[in-house]
Specification:
6-stranded mixed beta sheet; Immunoglobulin-like; 292 residues; 2 domains
Length: 292
């Protein structure tokens, strides 16, 4: 009986020792954020902005103000260097997007097998990054669709399937996107893959519909397409640095709000403490009309 009383008083003592801990987050200095890419047959696209504090109020005016519009941006392919020009466009929703790209008079298009160096100068600081557009070695052989299991017979949703060829030799990394009808391309919820398990094989996979991460996540019909959809799959060969950036970025994105998830670090490839990445894409496009 004495042992029970002792246990009771120990628990009571522990409870009475609790106190509130107030944590005041510090305001970090803004950092350069780089979202840059170059794809075979297409000009470079570089979006520069400054990071926002975690508790910042974000609206279209704040986002536009975060764009860096006075940087000097250069791109070299090893034999030629061009200065990228600032451009501004309005989206269908009325938002304004600022980006840098090569001009019509000094155009540079991406080429497979080439390495590109990006140099950014802003506010007395210099930032650099290097990426490669790999040769298109991992390819889509064919696309088809199947009915969604355990659905009514008249259900219009379909699962997209694909046959993929992976060349022998490890180190073939990919990222994929899908476009439905005339909509933009969106990456898959998990969009990057390596070939550690399927090296040198031809294999069949399910290709989930790409996700617009600016919209609420739809769980019930996630990944499905509909009968009559014209689907374009963009399969891109990427280098290891690009793979590591998107792999860690997607892990961090999916961990938001999950108390059981371990913290992760997004592995960018920009020097001088900047955030983000410069990625090269060796892209193949394949179109399929969804039908029974």
């Amino acid at each position: 009986m004495k042992r029970v009383h002792l246990f009771f008083w120990c628990v009571l003592a522990l409870i009475s020792c609790e106190k509130d801990i107030q944590i005041t987050p510090s305001d970090n200095q803004p950092k350069l954020v780089v979202d840059a890419e170059i794809e075979n047959g297409r000009p470079p696209l570089v979006v520069l902005s400054t990071s926002l504090n975690y508790f910042s109020t974000i609206d279209t005016a704040t986002l536009f103000a975060s764009y860096i519009q006075d940087a000097l941006v250069q791109l070299s392919n090893g034999s030629r260097t061009v200065i990228l020009e600032r451009n501004e466009v309005k989206t269908q929703g009325g938002a304004r997007l600022v980006f840098y790209t090569s001009s019509l008079n000094n155009m540079m298009l991406g080429e497979t097998g080439k390495t590109y160096q990006l140099t950014i100068r802003h506010n007395g600081q210099e930032y650099q990054s290097t990426t490669t557009i790999p040769n298109i070695t991992k390819t889509i052989d064919s696309l088809w669709s199947d009915k969604v299991p355990n659905r009514p017979a008249n259900d219009s949703f379909r699962v997209l399937k694909g046959s993929i060829f992976d060349p022998p030799g490890l180190g073939n990394y990919i990222r994929y996107f899908t476009r439905v009808n005339s909509q933009p391309f969106f990456p898959g919820f998990n969009s990057v893959f390596d070939d550690d398990i399927i090296d040198g094989k031809k294999y069949n996979i399910t290709i989930d519909r790409g996700v617009n991460r600016n919209l609420p996540f739809e769980r019930e019909n996630y990944g499905f397409f509909k009968l009559g959809d014209t689907i374009t799959v963009k399969l891109t060969n990427i280098d290891k640095a690009s793979f590591e950036f998107w792999r860690t970025w997607e892990f961090a994105f999916q961990s938001i709000g999950n108390p059981f998830s371990s913290p992760g670090v997004v592995k960018g490839n920009i020097s001088n403490g900047a955030l983000g990445a410069f990625c090269g894409y060796g892209s193949q496009y394949k179109t399929y009309i969804c039908k029974d």
